[in-house]
Amino acid sequence: MSDIHNDTRLTSTEREAVQGVVDRALRASQNDDRTGIAAAIVCGEWILEIAENEVNTFGDPTKHAEMVVIAAVTEKLDRKELSDCTLISSLQPCEMCLSAMRFAGIKRVIYCAQQANVAGKYFVFPDLKIEDFERAGEAFEYIGGVSEKEVIHLYAAGDE
Amino acid sequence: MSDIHNDTRLTSTEREAVQGVVDRALRASQNDDRTGIAAAIVCGEWILEIAENEVNTFGDPTKHAEMVVIAAVTEKLDRKELSDCTLISSLQPCEMCLSAMRFAGIKRVIYCAQQANVAGKYFVFPDLKIEDFERAGEAFEYIGGVSEKEVIHLYAAGDE
């Protein structure tokens, strides 16, 4: 049984969503045409959407899993404000995705693999850490490293 | 005649693209359904694409003009690497767009209205400036404030 089930920092729906993105990332990583990075958006007791990285699918460098899931949920809810939502990702959100999350008003982010433990290619301004972003704008909350051991092999050497 | 025609820091195609994004932004701003922010991508002597902000069109907070133009050009060229391109925007790229630009390998960015002169809403980590991003990763070049006076009225109070 994974540690995630005992992590009281997360709601039960958030824990379920973490397991969902882990499963989706692992499944995608086994397919040559897909990329094993997944993200979800939770609102209260609902997992609104789970999406995966589509950079290689569409050859579009902006299609990170977090961007895809934000676009999908804003379309589904027909509103661009997601301040009541939690973003969950199998990999620490990069600078682009953190910023997109803030534009959507999302104030809570939970992720598995942490920047310090993964390949550099997932970040483009490596001297800016999530702590710098946290200090540089309106407050947001982040919980990193949940279920990290289940996915770290995907990202440690930058395989995905 | 605008100052832009005498700005030797820009290539003639880049100058033409600046005028193109200014015109597109001004035109879009006159339409209730559109947003007066535009961006272009230049490759050598070619303006590959000019796009505008589609956040309100699609209710999707990730659809900044720069994101739209990067997605369009990577699709058009069928490659996600744009290191031979210049990104041009009518408004200083926010943190999300700067990061997307770096994922695409773009190393040169030119913009009109500068962060210091526009409403805060266009940036989500206001204590991080473009200089911080420049110092925090691989080098890129930026030229801000070109033709600023032609568009600053759109952004000074956050109208667009």
Key features of this structure:
homodimer, 160 residues, alpha/beta, 5-stranded mixed β-sheet, globular
What's the story with the biggest beta sheet of chain A? 5 strands, mixed
Largest two-chain interface: A-B, 35 and 35 residues
Q: Numbering strands along the chain, what is their spatial order in the largest sheet of chain A?
A: 2-1-3-4-5
How much helical structure, as a percent, in the residues of chain A? 25-40%
Rg of chain A, alpha carbons: 14 Å
Please give the alpha-carbon distance between the first and last residues of chain A. Answer: 25 Å
Report the principal-axis shape of chain A. Answer: globular
Low-confidence parts of chain A: none
Average pLDDT rating of chain A: 96
> What fraction of the residues of chain A are assigned to beta strands by DSSP?
15-25%
Quaternary structure classification: homodimer
H/E series of chain A = HEEHHEHEHEH
> Which structural class should the secondary elements of chain A be placed in?
alpha/beta
The helix count of chain A comes to 6
Structure description:
2 copies of one chain form a homodimer. A 5-stranded mixed sheet of chain A has the order 2-1-3-4-5, with helices on both faces. Helices cover 37% and strands 19% of the residues of chain A. Chain A has 160 residues and is α/β, with parallel strands linked by helices. Chain A contains 6 helices and 5 strands, in the order αββααβαβαβα. In chain A, a hairpin with a 2-residue loop joins strand 1 and strand 2 (46-52). Chain A has helices at 12-29, 55-58, 65-77, 95-103, 130-136, 148-155, and strands at 38-43, 46-52, 85-91, 108-113, 141-144. The model of chain A has no long low-confidence stretch (mean pLDDT 96).
